[in-house]
């Protein structure tokens, strides 16, 4: 069944599309069509969504219907919109696009793109030896069916041990292995969230978490994070839980994506207490917990303060190790893990045994691998910060103490326009609104420092060039940007 976006909803997503820098010579219909393509490019507008009728959108945007008609026609011509008389118009994928490693849709001819839309590292050198060792271990499992809904015991033991070493005593029965952190979140939402239930999230936050919540038809409320190093406003966060009493709250306390903030230990304890009093379950995303930089100490896990099984922790191998190794996990009470396993059987049965064995060997060498990753990320972060200070000194950023991303405050509400312009010079960006709701955060941009330093410096140079171009007269033609599923 095709979903539909109403005129007022699309108007909020479009924001100040008509007042963006660098489009003084562009007709309004071309600017509107370009803005819609931009929403498709960064995932705020999915494929297969029916757009509002021309009259409805014209009324919502307070423009003429002729302008909307011309914009829709241009979108049909570019392959981003399909229309059928009497049925409406819905977004679609142009035929000259493909799926990238990020899951986004992109033109076939962009193989040389510097992709700053994804925040993940290439595989470490230890991966190949781990894979060879895993194949030698595999025969032990070949005599059975190969289905392990909670994961093979060796991996669950290794993950449980990592929690215990962080000060949170954990048994293998409290661990469920999943096919990545996103899969872990999806399973938890299937178990803990009914359609229409209230959910509290940070703003900004991880966009794929927003997508997962939207798929569950959750009622999303947000708690705004400060752009500076303060991060969470204690009174506001606790008040949002106590007064809103959401069914679930999704938090990223370690080097929050995208801001890089680290939640203090005292606030963690108070959040758990507030959640218990409000009847709120906490889903804690620990994707970046093993990547502190500059010797930053990490407070105890949020679940350390849980006495009532209110905290469900999720994590995975993607950030410190490799995204291609689809291994994630859930840490919860043993009964919750069994309920998750029962729900999982109707989805994907189990994670691949060979991948789990690779993960076992990587975790056995975690100390060395993670130390190398931290050193690599520190060099790349500092290179990116230096390039930004030199080329874009008006942009503001708080240096993160861990994680893999910078959250930049720009010199104007230009994030979406900048992302579209950067595509033309071979740089893919993740604009601020992708990390929030309803077209907000146009003054912000996420930049990961997961690419080699030379590529990051090159990318900043290209971004700086198009940033200054935005203040000049616009180019006469709009390029068709990337489309996201």
From TrEMBL:
Domain of life: Bacteria
The entry's keywords: Aminotransferase, DNA-binding, Pyridoxal phosphate, Transcription, Transcription regulation, Transferase
UniProt cross-references to InterPro entries, sorted A to Z: Aminotransferase_I/II_large, HTH_trans_reg/aminotransferase, PyrdxlP-dep_Trfase, PyrdxlP-dep_Trfase_major, PyrdxlP-dep_Trfase_small, Tscrpt_reg_HTH_GntR, WH-like_DNA-bd_sf, WH_DNA-bd_sf
Transcription keyword on record: yes
Gene3D superfamilies the UniProt entry points to: Aspartate Aminotransferase, domain 1, Type I PLP-dependent aspartate aminotransferase-like (Major domain), Winged helix-like DNA-binding domain superfamily/Winged helix DNA-binding domain
PROSITE patterns found in the cross-reference section: HTH_GNTR
UniProt-recorded Gene Ontology molecular function terms: DNA binding; DNA-binding transcription factor activity; pyridoxal phosphate binding; transaminase activity
Location of the HTH gntR-type domain: 26-94
SUPFAM superfamilies recorded: PLP-dependent transferases, Winged helix' DNA-binding domain
Keyword Cell membrane: no
Family: In the C-terminal section; belongs to the class-I pyridoxal-phosphate-dependent aminotransferase family.
PANTHER family: HTH-TYPE TRANSCRIPTIONAL REGULATORY PROTEIN GABR
UniProt-recorded name of the protein: PLP-dependent aminotransferase family protein
